[in-house]
Design a protein that fits this description.
The complex is a heterodimer.
Chain A: H1 2-5, H2 7-43, E1 49-54, H3 74-83, E2 87-102, E3 105-114, H4 118-121, E4 126-129, H5 134-138, E5 143-146, H6 148-154, E6 165-168, E7 171-179, E8 195-198, H7 199-207, E9 214-219, H8 225-239, E10 250-254, H9 255-298, H10 300-308, H11 313-349, H12 358-384, H13 388-393
Parallel strand pairs in A: 3-8, 5-7
Antiparallel strand pairs in A: 1-9, 1-10, 2-3, 2-6, 2-9, 4-7, 5-8, 6-7
Helix pairs in contact in A: 2-9, 2-11, 2-12, 3-8, 9-11, 9-12, 11-12
Chain B: E1 3-16, E2 19-32, E3 36-40, H1 47-54, E4 62-67, E5 70-71, H2 77-87, E6 88-91, H3 103-112, H4 119-132, H5 148-160, E7 166-170, H6 178-195, E8 199-202, H7 206-209, E9 214-219, E10 222-228, H8 235-241
Parallel strand pairs in B: 3-8, 3-9, 6-7, 7-8
Antiparallel strand pairs in B: 1-2, 1-4, 4-5, 9-10
Helix pairs in contact in B: 3-4, 3-5, 4-5, 5-6, 6-8
Classes of the chains: A alpha+beta, B alpha/beta.
Chain lengths: 395, 248
C-alpha cells in the first residue's frame, strides 16, 4: 500500500479533511446545543404561555412604548377570565420599579402586581411560605412574595423572611412566601430579582393607575396556545369596541411563537456556520485531489509496471480511488472524534446538554466517502488511462 | 514442438505529425517452446517496437501475431492485460521493482491481478519463485537493501511466478557489471535448459547473444539475420573463468 510508504504525506493530506469534519461537527453541535438551551429556558417560563401587551395605535404623532400605553383594564381582565375557553389561568401584570427596604438594607428591584394564578402560569414554585389568595386580591392586601435575589439583598444571612415586614416605595408589605430560584433567562435577565404582590395592591397603592402593563395566560396545552390567542384577540376587540377596519390596540403573542422565532434564528446561524465549515471540507478534498495528482505522476513508472504484469485500467483506477477514499474516510473518522470531543468540552463549559447528533456522524462519514470518490476519481482515471509503454519509460 | 510465437508480416507504423514512421516493415518468424532467442539490433532498428509488440503492450498495424495460439491483434485493452498477466513474464533493464516494498511482495504482484489465485497461494508461489532464483533468504528485504544483481533476480522471480509461456527480457543485463551479468545469464540459461522456459532476450550486446540458442538481428525494421547458434557458450563456465577480483 502506497499510503504506508508515505505516512507523513498521507497524514498531512488527511489534515484538511480532519479539520473540515471536526469544524462541521463542532459547529453543528454548538448550534443544536444553543437552540436546545433557548428552547429549554423559554419552555421553563411556560411553553403554553399567551401574552397580551398594550399597543399604541395613535395615528401619527409620537409612538409610545407598549408599557406606557394605557389600553388594558380590569374590564378586559374580567372578560377574558369569563369568556376564554382555551385558557385555564390568567393573570394581569402591573410593574413598578422601586427600592425594597428592610431596616438598614435596601435593594433596587421591581414589584409585579399579579393575580393568585400567576405562579401556575409562569411555572414558578414556592420555596417557602404560601401564595396570596383571591381574598388578598380583593382586599388590596399588603402581602408579597420575594425572589431569591431580593431575599439575599434585604435580609441578613440566617434570618427567615417569612412574616417579616419590608417596605417598597414606603409602603409596608408582609412577606408571606419565597420563590424558588430560577436564574437568568435567555436574555440575561435575573428572574429572581422580583417582588410579587396582588395586582390590586400594586395598582392602588404604588402606581395609582387602573391600567395593566400586560396579561399572562396559560393555554390548556401548548398546541392550543394559538387558538387561545385568536380567541383572546376576538374578546379584546369586542371589549375595546374596535370596528372591523380598525387595527388592534394590543398585541397577543404566544410563547410557542417566540420559541419558534428564536429557534429559526439560531437554526439559520447554525446553517450559515456549517456552510462555512463545509467549505473547509471541500478545500480538504481539493488537497486530496492535488496529492493524488502528484502521486499519479510520481508513480507513473509503477503504474506502467503494474499494467505490464497484467493490471487492467480499472485495477489501477480502483487502486488510486481506494487510496483517496481511505485518506478521506480515515480523516473523516479522526475529524468526527475530534469534533465530538470539542462539542463535549464546549457544552460542558457552557453548561448545555451535550448533544451528539448520530445523523451528523453518518452524514460526515458519507460526505467524506463522496469527497474521496469525487476528488480521487479524476486523478485515478488519469492513471488508469496511461499508455503502459510510455508509463514504463517515464523518468 | 509447440509454437509459442508466430509472427506473420508484422508492420507497425507511427504517425509523427505529417510524417509516417515505419518502425517495422514486415517481420516474420516463429519461436518454439524451449528456445532461447536473442533479438539484436542497433538503436532505430525497430527492436523496441518489436519488444512492445511481443509483450502485448502494443498492437501491430498489420500482420498477424499469435501468442500461444491467441491472435493478439484481435484483443482489446483489458484482454491484452490478461494475456500479459497469464502468458508473459517481463524482465526490464532497470528492474522496475516497487520501492519500499519487500522482495516477496514485489514477486506477488502479477498474481495480485489474477483473480484465480488466493492470497495464501500467492504468497506460497512467490516464495517458491524467490527460492528458484536463490533468494529464499532475502524475501523480506527491500529493493534498496539489495545489490543490482539481487534486484534483477527478484525481477526474474516476478517474471516466473505466473508461470508464463515466455520470459521477455529487455536489456536485462544492461545495468549490471560483467560478473553480475554473467550470473544473470547463467540463471537464464539454467531456467531455459533445465526447466524448459522459453526466453526472448532483447539486447544490443553481441556478447550476451552468444549464450542463446538462436539470434535474430533486426535492421531498419526488417529481419536481416535469423540463425541458430551452434556453439552456445555456458555463462556458468564464463563466470568460473573470470579472475577472482579482490575486494577494494
Amino acid at each position: 500500500m502506497a499510503l504506508q510508504r508515505n505516512k507523513l504525506r498521507a497524514v498531512l493530506t488527511m489534515l484538511g479533511i480532519i479539520i473540515g469534519v471536526a469544524a462541521v461537527i463542532t459547529i453543528g453541535a454548538i448550534g443544536a446545543g444553543s437552540t436546545a438551551s433557548i428552547h429549554n429556558s423559554l419552555s421553563s417560563m411556560g411553553s403554553n404561555l399567551v401574552m397580551v401587551m398594550p399597543n399604541s395605535n395613535a395615528p401619527g404623532g409620537a409612538r409610545l412604548q407598549g408599557a406606557n400605553v394605557e389600553t388594558l383594564t380590569e374590564k378586559d381582565f374580567v372578560a377574558l377570565k369569563k369568556e376564554s375557553t382555551y385558557i385555564n389561568a390568567i393573570s394581569p401584570s402591573s410593574q413598578s420599579k422601586g427600592q425594597a427596604i428592610n431596616g438598614s438594607l435596601n435593594w433596587p428591584t421591581t414589584i409585579e402586581g399579579v393575580s393568585e394564578q400567576y405562579l401556575a402560569i409562569k411555572n414558578l414554585s414556592l420555596k417557602d411560605g404560601k401564595m396570596f389568595g383571591d381574598r388578598d386580591v380583593h382586599t388590596y392586601a399588603k402581602v408579597c412574595l420575594l425572589g431569591q435575589t431580593v431575599v439575599d439583598n434585604v435580609f441578613p444571612k440566617g434570618v427567615d423572611p417569612i412574616g417579616k415586614i419590608i417596605r417598597f416605595n414606603k409602603i409596608p408589605f408582609q412577606v408571606i412566601g419565597i420563590l424558588n430560584k430560577k436564574g437568568q433567562n435567555t436574555f440575561g435577565q435575573d428572574q429572581d430579582d422580583i417582588i410579587l404582590a396582588p395586582y390590586t395592591t400594586v395598582q392602588k397603592r404604588i402606581i395609582a393607575s387602573i391600567y395593566f402593563g400586560s396579561f399572562n395566560a396559560s393555554a390548556k396545552s401548548e398546541n392550543l396556545s394559538q387558538a387561545a390567542a385568536d380567541e383572546m384577540e376576538k374578546i379584546l376587540r369586542k371589549t375595546h369596541r374596535l370596528r372591523p377596519n380598525e387595527d388592534n390596540d394590543f398585541t397577543v403573542r404566544t410563547q410557542a411563537e417566540l420559541i419558534q422565532t428564536l429557534s429559526s434564528i439560531t437554526t439559520l446561524l447554525t446553517a450559515l456556520l456549517t456552510a462555512i465549515a463545509a467549505i473547509s471540507l471541500i478545500i480538504g478534498g481539493i488537497g486530496i485531489m492535488n496529492i493524488m495528482y502528484v502521486s499519479v505522476t510520481e508513480r507513473t513508472k509503477e503504474i506502467g509496471l503494474r499494467m505490464a504484469v497484467g493490471a487492467r485500467g480499472r485495477d489501477i483506477l480502483n487502486q488510486f480511488l481506494t487510496e483517496a477514499i481511505i485518506i478521506s474516510v480515515t480523516g473523516g473518522l479522526i475529524g468526527i472524534l475530534i469534533g465530538e470531543t470539542l462539542a463535549l468540552v464546549i457544552s460542558n463549559a457552557l453548561h448545555w446538554e451535550p448533544i451528539i447528533d448520530k445523523a451528523s456522524i453518518i452524514e460526515a462519514f458519507g460526505f467524506c466517502t463522496v469527497i474521496g470518490v469525487f476528488f480521487g476519481y479524476y486523478p485515478a482515471l488519469k492513471a488508469s488511462r496511461l499508455d503502459p509503454i510510455q508509463a514504463l519509460r517515464y523518468e | 514442438m509447440k509454437k509459442i510465437l508466430e509472427l506473420q508480416d508484422i508492420k507497425r507504423e507511427f504517425q509523427m505529425g505529417s510524417e509516417t514512421v515505419r518502425a517495422l516493415k514486415g517481420v516474420s518468424f516463429d519461436v518454439f517452446a524451449g528456445e532461447f532467442v536473442t533479438i539484436m539490433g542497433s538503436s532505430g532498428s525497430g527492436k523496441t517496437t518489436l519488444l512492445n509488440t511481443l509483450g502485448c503492450l502494443d498492437k501491430p498495424s498489420s500482420g498477424s501475431y499469435l501468442l500461444d495460439g491467441v491472435s493478439v491483434s484481435e484483443q482489446n485493452r483489458d484482454q491484452l492485460a490478461k494475456l500479459r498477466n497469464e502468458k508473459i513474464g517481463f524482465v526490464f533493464q532497470s528492474y522496475n521493482l516497487l520501492p519500499r516494498t519487500t522482495a516477496l511482495e514485489n514477486v506477488e504482484l502479477p498474481l495480485f491481478y489474477d483473480p484465480r489465485v488466493t492470497a495464501a497461494e500467492r504468497r506460497e508461489r512467490a516464495a517458491a519463485a524467490l527460492q528458484a532464483v536463490k533468494l529464499g533468504d532475502r524475501m523480506n528485504h527491500l529493493p534498496n537493501e539489495m545489490s543490482g544483481g539481487q534486484q534483477q533476480r527478484v525481477a526474474i522471480a516476478r517474471a516466473l511466478v505466473n508461470e508464463p509461456v515466455m520470459i521477455l527480457a529487455d536489456e536485462a543485463t544492461g545495468n549490471l557489471d560483467s560478473r553480475t551479468a554473467y550470473e544473470i545469464m547463467a540463471l537464464m540459461q539454467d531456467l531455459n535448459q533445465s526447466q524448459g522456459k522459453t526466453i526472448v532476450f532483447v539486447t544490443h550486446e553481441p556478447d550476451i547473444a552468444a549464450f542463446s540458442s538462436r539470434t535474430i538481428v533486426l535492421k531498419d525494421g526488417r529481419v536481416v539475420k535469423d540463425q541458430v547458434n551452434q556453439q552456445i557458450r555456458s555463462a556458468k563456465e564464463m563466470l568460473a573463468a573470470l579472475p577472482v577480483t579482490e575486494d577494494y
